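SAMPLE LOG
Freezer: B-3
Tube label: C17
Construct: single chain, 264 aa
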Amino acid sequence: MTVNDILNCITEIAPLKWQEHYDNAGIQVGDLNAEVRKALIALDVTEELVDEAIAKNCDLIISHHPLIFHGLKHLTPDTYIERVVMKAIKHDIAIISMHTNLDNSYMGVSRVLAEKLGLTNLHLLQPSADEPEICGAGMIGEFASPMKELDFLSLVADCIGSPCLRHSVLTGRDVRKVALCGGSGTPFMPDALRKKADAYLTADIKYHDFFIPEGNILLVDGGHFETEQFTKELIKDLILKKIPKFAAEIAETNTNAVHYFCRR
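STRUCTURE (predicted):
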């Protein structure tokens, strides 16, 4: 088994051509033709994660967020990115990342989140112009029965394991149709409004954006890591579907960079 064989398991439903222009999905460190025996799957690549990969004798790390977004001019111990690259090379560990190409797949990040919440009749929130049935941003679906807004917020918090949620003013209406986008999805709020969703769940919402709904939709910020965490399961499932006996393992290291202080 090679790095490229594992990469192909994922790009079959999320081709690299679907990544955004600013992105750097695909191979981050290593040789695509290198042999692979075991892979560790995570949302982010940190020094602690590489240490876990070393301890578990993994020769491949698969992350959602790319380790390298911009070109490196040198490899020194000055930044965590450089230290991670150096450590990975030293221990012969390859790193690949499946980012916005997986975000933009109908079978990708937002679909998994929608299914975890129990939504059905799923469609892309903002379909692409070229391949509108299978490529695009976000997801929109429905609950079998409407629920109160506070019940919806409680469901979201329980589903994603969040200690708190940021949200806009309650509309006073029940929630049945829900739009969502795992990760930073504020740019797709107009699509959620246009399609008359009762609620829009995403992350990284700026303060002033909470004014935009004007009571027409419940806007919910569930956190970046929290709304994308199920991507790890997705990647593992895609690999095992094609190569059932491959040793793919979800990392134990918590790579969420955001921590919460909740006053009792």
